[in-house]
Amino acid sequence: LGNAYARGEHMSEGQNYPKALECFEHAAAQGNLDAMCSAGAMYYHGRGTEVNYETALAYYIAAAQHNHVEAIENAADMFENGLGTEKRPDAAALLRRQRDAIFAARQAADDSANTDKP
User: Fold this and answer.
1) Residue 78 to residue 115: CA distance in whole angstroms
2) Least reliable range by pLDDT among 28-42, 52-66, 83-97, 99-113
C-alpha cells in the first residue's frame, strides 16, 4: 500500500508521500524488511517528511540486520559518506562484506539447485 501511495497508483488523490511513509512505518513496525528499507529511503530523500539521515540510517540498519541487501548497500553508503553518522569506512566495508557473503550464499544455493536437476 505504501508503494501505491508513493507512486500515486490507484489512488484518487494521486501521489501522497506522507501517507506512503505512514504505511511503510506501520509495516516496518510489524517486521517487514522492504518497508523498513522504503521508510529509510523516504527519510533519506525527504519524501513525506523532512530529510533525516539519522532516522534513514536506523531503518536501513534494522533491515540490514536481517540481510536485506538494498538496506545493507544504503547503510554502507551512508557510513562511507558520513550521512546520519560520522564517516565510518570500517562499518561500510563490514556491511559490504556482509552483502558479498549473501550474494555468494545465494549463488552457491543456485548452483546446488542446478546440479541437483536430472
Assistant:
1) 39
2) 99-113
Give exposure, 71-109, as e/b (b: 16+ Cβ within 10 Å).
bbbbbbebbbeebbeeebeebbeebbebbeeeeeeeeee
Query: Distance between CA 8 and CA 20 in Å, rounded?
Result: 9
What does the pLDDT average to over 56-67? 98
Would the CA dihedral through 37, 35, 39, 14 be positive or negative? positive
Q: How far apart are the first and last CA of the chain?
A: 41
Q: What is the pTM of this model?
A: 0.86
Residue 12 has pLDDT above 80, yes or no: no
| Euclidean distance between CA atoms 118 and 100, whole angstroms | 30
DSSP string of 23-85?
Answer: HHHHHHHTT-HHHHHHHHHHHHHTSSS---HHHHHHHHHHHHTTT-HHHHHHHHHHHHHTSSS
